[in-house]
Amino acid sequence: MTFQWTAVAVFLYVEIAILLLLCLPYISPLRWQKIFMFSLWGKIANYWNKAFLAIIVLLIVLFLDAVREVRKYSDIHIAEKSTQATASAYDHIHMKLFRSQRNLYISGFSLFLWLVLRRTVSLITLLAKEMGAQVALEIQVANTGDAARKYLEENEKLQRSLMERRNCITAELIEETNKKLKQEAEKLKAEIKKSAMVLGKKTNEVTEVKNQAESLKKEYDHLVLEHKKLKVGGRGSLRRTS
């Protein structure tokens, strides 16, 4: 095997090993993303597209060369069969055909796995970004849920405090109203007592006036009787003197 095909075979084995590592279920896409975010990969990323295209072109050239070799030695192999050449020549052509077919498979699989490797890396990177976004979304949802719970608890506390304040204000208003009603009741009682005392005084004055009026009436009646008696006595003395 020449140097170029040895390099292609080694490249094929490296591709297989990398793909097997990428397909391991124990390593998550997020961990692969952390590996891809190393500073070394950041430096290589600037030349990645150019190197990718260069390797594709090289593998395509080697693949076409292997196809040409296979067709060449296939035609020679058929010609040797038809002409019935010597055994050593037939074995030499058969060996050349085997090597060209081997090179064809090596270059073809290397080209195919190189494309698969790029696609796998891009899919892993995309999946890692989606998983990171999902984790961030879950954290945001959890934080939003915690904040909503805190707001609900604070709202309940505020409602309780408002209810307590309302109850306190209502109790204070009731107490103030009761105090005012008691004060007014006491004032009314005092005014009723004063009115009763005034009424008692007026009643006493009225009774005194009534008694005075009755005594005056009695005196008046007595004076009327005395006056009548005096009139009657004057008339009798006048008649006697006449």
Give the biggest beta sheet. Answer: none
Low-confidence stretches: none
Approximate helicity band = over 70%
Termini Cα gap? 205 Å
| SSE run | HHHH
Topology record:
Blueprint: H1 3-22, H2 29-36, H3 39-83, H4 87-241
Features:
single chain, 242 residues, mainly alpha, 4 helices, 0% strand, rod-shaped
Short description:
This protein is mostly helical and 242 residues long. 94% of the residues lie in helices and 0% in strands.
Explain this structure to me?
There is one protein chain. With 242 residues, the chain is mostly helical. It has a domain at 3-139. Helix content is 94%, strand content 0%. It has four helices and no strands. Helix 1 (3-22) runs parallel beside helix 4 and helix 3 (39-83) packs antiparallel against helix 4. The chain is rod-shaped, with a radius of gyration of 66 Å.
